[in-house]
Specification:
The structure is a single chain. By secondary structure, the protein is α+β, with helices and mostly antiparallel strands. The chain contains three helices and seven strands. Strands 1-2-7-3-4-5-6 form a seven-stranded antiparallel sheet, covered by helices on one side. The model has no long low-confidence stretch (mean pLDDT 92).
Length: 161
C-alpha cells in the first residue's frame, strides 16, 4: 500500500508539471504564450491553441508571417500579415478563415511579436490553469501528492519496525 501511495503521489505531481510546462517553460526562453479564443486563423491555428510569440522588429516582419498584436480593449489578435507598409509603419492583416483583409491597418506600436509556434487545443488546458478554479485544482493535486508521499513514508516506517 505504501508503494501505491508513493506512486500515485508521483503521478499527480507529474500531471501538474506536464500540464503547466507548455505555458511556463517557453517564458524562460523569452517567448510569450497566449491562448487563441477565436477561429479567425483556422484551420492552421484553431480555437483553443497555444501560440508562442517572440518579440520581433516590425520592419523585419514579412508578408505571410503570423503576428500577435494589441487589438484594443485588452484583446490580443493573431493574424497573418498580407503586407508590411514600412513607410507608413503599419501592417495589413487578415485571418486565414476570413474572406477579406482586416478593415483597419495594424500600427507598428500595436505589435507584440511574431508567432513562432502553435500547439492546437493546449490553450484550453493553459486557460483552465490560469483561472482560479484551475489554480485551486493544481494546488489540490500538489497537496494530495504531498500527503500521499507522507502517508507512504509513515507506512514504510511502520513496516520496518
Amino acid at each position: 500500500m505504501a508503494a501505491f501511495c508513493s506512486a500515485l503521489g508521483t503521478v499527480l505531481l507529474i500531471l501538474v508539471v506536464v500540464a503547466a510546462a507548455p505555458a511556463a517553460v517557453p517564458r524562460a526562453f523569452g517567448l510569450q504564450v497566449y491562448e487563441v479564443i477565436s477561429g479567425s486563423m483556422a484551420p492552421e491555428i484553431p480555437t483553443g491553441s497555444l501560440v508562442y510569440v517572440r518579440k520581433a522588429k516590425a520592419e523585419q516582419i514579412q508578408a505571410e508571417d503570423v503576428i500577435a498584436y494589441d487589438g484594443g480593449g485588452g484583446a490580443l489578435i493573431t493574424h497573418r500579415v498580407v503586407e508590411n507598409r514600412t513607410l507608413m509603419g503599419e501592417f495589413v492583416t487578415k485571418g486565414d478563415a476570413n474572406e477579406k483583409e482586416d478593415p483597419n491597418p495594424v500600427s507598428y506600436d500595436q505589435l507584440r511579436g511574431q508567432v513562432v509556434y502553435s500547439i492546437p487545443y493546449l490553450g484550453w488546458i493553459a486557460g483552465l490553469l490560469s483561472e482560479t478554479t484551475g489554480k485551486l485544482a493544481a494546488a489540490g493535486m500538489i497537496a494530495a501528492a504531498v500527503l500521499l508521499h507522507v502517508a507512504a513514508g509513515i507506512m514504510f516506517r511502520k513496516t520496518e519496525s
